[in-house]
Amino acid sequence: MKKNLFLILVVLVLALTLSSCSGRTLTASGWSGLTADEETAYLAAGPQIYAINLKNGSLKWVYPAEATNGISFYADPVLTEDGQLIIGGYDGVLYSLDPANGSENWVYEKATSQYVGSPLVTSEGIFAPSADNNIYAVSLQGEELWEPFSTEDPVWAQPCTIEGSDYIYVASMDHKVYAINSKTGAKVWETEDLGGPIVSAPAIDNNVLYVSTFANEVLAIDIETHSILWQFQVQDWAWASPAVDGDLLYVSDLAGGFYALNKETGDQLWQIIPGGGIVSAPLIVDENIYFGTAEGSFIVVDADGNIQQNTPLEGKLYSHIVATENVILVAPSENENALLIGFDPSGIQKWSFAPEK
Amino acid sequence: MWDLFISLMINILLYIYNLIGQNFGWAIIIFTILTRVVLYPLTARQMKSSKGMQELQESKKWKDIQEKYKGDKEKLSQKQIEIYKEMGINPLGSCLPTLLQFPIIIGLYQAIIRTLAVTPLQLVNLSKHITDGANLIPINNHFLWMELSNPERLQIFGFGVPVLAIIVAITSYLQSKMITTTTGSGGNDQSAQMNKMMQLYMPLFMGYLALTYASGLAVYFVASNLASIGQYALMGQVDLKKLIPSKLLPSKSSQNAPKK
Fold first, then answer.
1. What's residue B52's pLDDT?
2. Quick check: is A300 in a domain?
């Protein structure tokens, strides 16, 4: 009996050791997605989506009511003008919820892999990038508009467009950017191989696309000619979307470098390295630029590159920062005590939210 | 230190992947075989020590002292140590090479899983290991009928059959059955029973892992098992008779019995 017990223990220990190395994680596989209106923050954090009151951080509703095995959410939810909350799940389903109470309007279930990036929502419809290499186009009622547009590798980046344009621009992990006719789904043009995957949405300004790539580069691409205007070398993979503010372009890399460039020429104006890789686009509010780092620092810099605030938080800051009129929202990963923290504009913490265990 | 080691393995894996035309399944197989080749001196030493131990345990001298001091464990172990010294055998000689191989095999295992990154967090983690080769990302994870980052099922008449998991269990069983050194009558009953149990449970456990986890791992398991059997066969250490249940083999007494 004792021998059998010993053997069972040996097999169990071995099982746990190998399982822990197998790469199948019981923890999150992404970081929280976040959006907000004037009263509510919508946080996609693993198995559930939470609607959180911005005044005090209290929970308004949660979807689904019970966490279900196989369903999880990490893409940023998107609020539409006709009052829907659209979010793609890791189960390959695109969900439309009622932002008021979290009830389900419709679902679109054609994708065969997860939605990592957020959909682009325009008056024409919803354009959702999927890890099954496709862009799905559905109406605001959840009906398919055109046959999915295929690239050669997963699409994690949110598509972008210019208001009033018939084209949407899609950056793919196949190293290319595509222009697609939003009415028909037909390809208008594609770039050459840009040297590395693109996982974040391009920034778009004055007919120029600014694209971050894993080839340690940020590129400016002319929308008319789809030619490369300039390339800027960073120190590591450029993951986060660039952000345009006036004549400046802010870019970053996984080595922790944060750069201000002249958007016309790509010349570097200044650089800071606050520590920790940067994966989310900066948020620009008035004179301040907000971003988070993988070391858990919530950074505020001014337009000259002077660090105004560096708040260390528990966990890592991969999710992008969202601001409403009175609250700045930060969603840390690997934080035991909070999924979302609300700061006032002066940087003082107002509340934090963690779901009941 | 461990991270540096994993980084080295990931970069070698990516180098092979690029060299052979970006096929990750073949990269896993080639890397597994190369690792076996690199570990050959350790395997050979382990085998030599195991053989020495086996011969010692079957020797008359060993059996005699087992019998003589069976009531006095302290004296028995003292005498055993003397015999070890006399015959120049290190009782840990067969364990130490195995222990040294273990981190390398675990490292290879982790390198495969980390390189197959399919989620944002996995990709952020992978970026810390890659020195050059962002142009190879994302990894082409299609191999035969499999997607190497997902559990494998072959669709046969509308049913998803876990073919690779079955192959993993069978090759694990064959490997353990064919290359486990048998302990002679002078051997320890407890370790013999443990060997038997492991021969049964380990293939089932490996099959379960192959069934549940990314099929890239299952490819590694099959390649590793077959490489191991091949390696032992080249060294003349594979005994096909061990595959046949002893009940089906004619016993020595019946072989010697006079024909009626």
1. 78
2. yes
pTM for the complete prediction?
Answer: 0.83
**pLDDT tens digits for range A130-157:** 999 999 999 999 999 999 999 999 999 9
Cα Rg, chain A, nearest whole Å: 21
CB contact under 8 A, A23 and B116: yes
Which residues of chain B lie closer than 8 angstroms to A277, CB-CB?
124, 127
**Domain assignment present for A292:** yes
User: In the structure encoding, which two tokens stand for residue A66, read together?
Assistant: 């019970």
Q: Which two tokens stand for residue B260?
A: 């009626």
Identify the burial level of A83 via C-beta atoms within 10 angstroms of its C-beta, where 0-12 means exposed, 13-18 middle and 19 or more buried. Answer: exposed
Domain ranges, residue A14: 1-30
Handedness of CA A321, A324, A328, A331 (dihedral sign): negative
- Sheet containing A228-233: order of strands: A203-205, A208-213, A217-222, A228-233
Chain A, chain B: beta-carbon pairs less than 8 Å apart: 91
- Regarding an ipTM greater than 0.90, the answer is no
Residue A152 placed within a domain: no
Q: Dump pLDDT digits (tens) for A301-338.
A: 999 999 999 999 999 999 999 999 889 999 999 999 99
CATH at residue A254? 2.40.128.630
Domain count, chain A: 2
DSSP tally for chain B: helices H, then strands E: 11, 4
Given a contact cutoff of 8 angstroms between Cβ atoms, the answer to whether A38 and A325 are in contact is yes
Flag whether A58 is in a domain.
no
